[in-house]
Specification:
Mean pLDDT: 84
Number of domains: 4
Low-confidence stretches: none
Structural class: mainly alpha
Strand order of the largest sheet: 1-4
Distance between the termini: 30 Å
CATH superfamily of the largest domain: Hypothetical protein af1432
Shape: globular
Helix content: 55-70%
């Protein structure tokens, strides 16, 4: 497609001139600059692509049955939940046709091993964190990034200087800035330029999220797949950033909620790495009972992954909004649903419903109508978020896990 008219931001600044051939990078760029519609035409002599053949009604009905089974714990019917189910059905049907199977997405088998009754009693949250030197002895650059982010008087130069202390972190951050997440038309090749374009607080927040990823590259075998976990996490961050562009009062919080989505299941990764026996028990019981994993975590550990993740980010002196978004992405905190907690809650349900990776959950978690109301996103926002994630997830995932993405 070709732009038939100039595309401008709401403030009138030119984003792309008439005649530009629209690519995936342009779609991301339009979203970044809050462009809600454009006028396009097909290049001369080019016919529209043939529509995909209609799906067999029997396949669609089988897909509906499959989707209904995965939404068994998603809560009472709500327009947003109905929209999600409607998005999932053709997706499942296409998978059935592509894989030539009646079960496009069967429940994963329980982790191997018996439910050993001799497993030790679970420790308290504080003891889980205190017993792991990697969680309490953070690299110096990590602590400095937190200081910059928590200090409203920090300058752009200070942010670039601190990030530049870790060359690997700086390189990954520049790859993210140059990825489909932003879709800038020209390459950003220095931290100082990245700070100027993106903003110091936004870039420092992204650096914080990237620095956490490297701590959880290795997990015990048999419990989960590392790439699937991070695909789910990246997808949640992308869905949150897409929803932020359509939600009341969050248009300038895309980076913050992206990092909150990226880290929303970090507590589950600590469980897998530090308490693999009890984690295996929780996963096996959830599979056997055909239930959600989170309530089983509470029975097995005495707490869930959200509480553990919030405690860790609080220990690390993360901004309170990030810690709360991680800790309250399944249920509201004492303040009720805030914009940040609501957006991560909805984004997590969306990517679970679409099976965009997984951190261990098979069923769709409950969707809170109050969180949807607090988000204030218009009808159709969930479909737009799914489209954005489909477009960007593999490219952004390759920034965080370049080796795994290249080998997949």
């Amino acid at each position: 497609m070709v732009l038939a008219e100039d595309v401008r931001r709401p403030d009138g600044a030119l984003v792309a001139p008439r005649g530009t051939v629209v690519s995936a990078r342009h779609l991301s760029l339009f979203d970044t600059h809050h462009v809600t519609s454009v006028v396009v035409r097909l290049p001369p002599g080019e016919a529209p692509e043939d529509a995909a053949p209609p799906l067999d009604p029997l396949v669609l009905e089988a897909a509906r049955d499959h989707v209904r089974s995965r939404f068994a714990h998603a809560g009472p019917r709500h327009p947003a939940l109905g929209e999600l189910m409607a998005l999932c059905v053709p997706r499942a049907a296409r998978d059935m046709v592509r894989k030539k199977t009646a079960f496009p997405d069967p429940p994963p088998p329980p982790p191997p091993g018996l439910d050993d009754p001799a497993l030790p009693d679970p420790p308290a949250i504080a003891d889980v964190i205190a017993s792991d030197p990697a969680l309490v002895s953070l690299p110096d650059v990590f602590a400095r990034i937190c200081e910059v982010l928590n200090n409203p008087a920090s300058t752009a130069q200070e942010a670039a200087k601190v990030i530049g202390m870790d060359q690997s972190l700086a390189a990954r951050l520049l790859r993210l800035v140059n990825s489909a997440f932003y879709g800038f038309p020209t390459k950003v090749d220095t931290l100082s330029r990245a700070v100027t374009i993106v903003g110091s607080r936004q870039l420092t927040t992204l650096a914080l999220g990237i620095s956490v990823i490297s701590m959880f590259r290795d997990l015990p075998p048999g419990l989960t797949d590392v790439k699937s976990v991070w695909k789910h996490s990246v997808a949640c961050g992308l869905a949150a950033s897409a929803l932020a562009g359509r939600a009341a009062g969050l248009q300038n919080g895309a980076e913050r909620v992206f990092v909150a989505g990226l880290l929303h299941d970090v507590g589950r990764l600590i469980m897998y790495r530090n308490l693999p026996g009890l984690s295996g028990r929780a996963l096996r019981r959830a599979r056997q009972d055909k239930s959600l994993v989170r309530p089983v975590e509470v029975r097995v550990f005495g707490f869930d992954h959200a509480a553990l993740g919030q405690a860790l980010l609080t220990e690390w002196r993360f901004p309170e909004s990030l810690a709360l978004a991680v800790g309250c992405h399944h249920k509201p905190g004492r303040r009720g649903w805030t914009p940040d907690t609501a957006i991560i809650h909805v984004a997590d349900v969306v990517v679970n419903a679409m099976r965009m990776g997984s951190s261990g959950e098979y069923y769709v978690p409950p969707l809170s109508p109050d969180a949807v109301a607090a988000l204030g996103a218009p009808p159709g926002a969930l479909a737009e978020a799914v489209d954005k994630v489909d477009l960007q997830v593999e490219a952004v995932l390759s920034v965080f896990l370049p080796d795994e993405a290249a080998s997949s």
